[in-house]
Amino acid sequence: MCRVDAWSSWWRHNDGIYKYENVGIKMKRGQVTIFIIVGILLVASVLGFFFLTEGEGGFLSPSDLSPQEFVKVCVREAVEESIDKILLNGGEIEASKTILYKGEEWNYLCYINESYYPCYNIHPLLELQIEREIEEDIEDELGDCFDKMRESFEDEGFDVDEGAMSYSVDLLPGHVAVNLKKSVELSGETGTRSFEDFGVEIMSPIYDLVRVVREIVNGETEYCHFNYDTYSFVYPEYEIQRADYDYSKIYSVIDRRSGSEFKFAVRSCAFEW
To answer: Is 202 helix (H, G, I), strand (E, B) or coil?
Structure first.
């Protein structure tokens, strides 16, 4: 009788025991095979992840931004700054007709120089005007964004070829859409990639604020009055403040959800109160 180290069982000239130990050896070989398969799958998954990442973004900079992402971040900052100026100056980048109130210039949206007469809507196409104002305000910044992107990738050893740029701005519920097209070709050691769509959406309540402002101006134009307390009660997401000063009405429309504030003035049915 001799001892064999297979699951610490005894080897005898017995068919039952021999078959039992042989099954154990086969099971151990099966386990090894499973581990090999799992290992291959893990390696394939890791390689697949890197290939997919390269295919989606490609030519990543040290900051892990593709050319499109690089430009979009820059454009978003420019548009946000432009929106802030628009809200502060009553729908214009640079206020054109203002009244000084508490040390600040408030831009008139509805105005008449006579007493007891309703005002005229100075900016009847306010939404369209704001879109054009933003487009003009960000034009130089858009060019700078592409210049910075080109310099960044050229510093990393890439060749950048650019075409003409076209863009437009749309105010939409909940956001501002910048439709930005420009042909950009990026060449490096791993090949050449082409990009064209650099459009971006910026979260902003300006569209809805303009809608509320338009209702206020329409009320002042038609009735020389707007019941802002009732409006805020019906639409609690907006806070409307009004101050009467120097024959004018100083309005502030605040989006409670974001804190964004649209400021403007009205001179309608002016009389000494």
So the answer is: strand
Tokens of 38: 């799992």
Q: Annotate 153-199 with DSSP letters as a single string.
A: HHHTT-EEEEEEEEEEEEEETTEEEEEEEEEEEEEETTEEEEEEE--
Q: Model pTM? A: 0.74
35: three-class secondary structure by DSSP: helix
pLDDT digits (tens, 9 = 90+) for 37-85: 545 555 444 444 433 333 333 444 444 578 999 999 999 999 999 999 9
- Report yes or no: 107 and 92 within 8 Å, Cβ to Cβ: yes
Tokens 């858009």: give the residue. 142
> If we measure between CA atoms, which residue out of 206, 194, 212 comes closest to residue 169?
206
**CA-based radius of gyration for the chain:** 34
Q: How far apart are CA 76 and CA 216, in angstroms?
A: 30
- pLDDT band for position 189 (cuts 50, 70, 90): confident
CA–CA dist 223, 119 (Å, integer): 10
Other CB atoms within 10 Å distance of the CB of residue 211:
16
Q: How many CB atoms lie within 10 A of CB 126?
A: 21
Burial classification of residue 152, based on how many CB atoms lie within 10 Å of its CB (0-12 exposed, 13-18 middle, 19 or more buried): middle
Cα-flanking dihedrals φ and ψ of residue 244, to 5°? -95, 125
The Cα–Cα gap between 117 and 270 comes to: 7
Question: Taking a C-beta distance cutoff of 8 angstroms, is the pair 161, 185 a contact?
Answer: yes
CA–CA gap between residue 208 and residue 245 (Å, rounded): 26
For residue 212, give Cα distances in angstroms to 93, 112, 139, 229, 253.
19, 21, 28, 13, 8
Residue pair 22/14 in contact by the 8 Å Cβ criterion: no
The alpha helices in the chain, defined as continuous H runs, are 15-56, 67-88, 126-155, 206-223, 228-234
3-class secondary structure, 33: helix
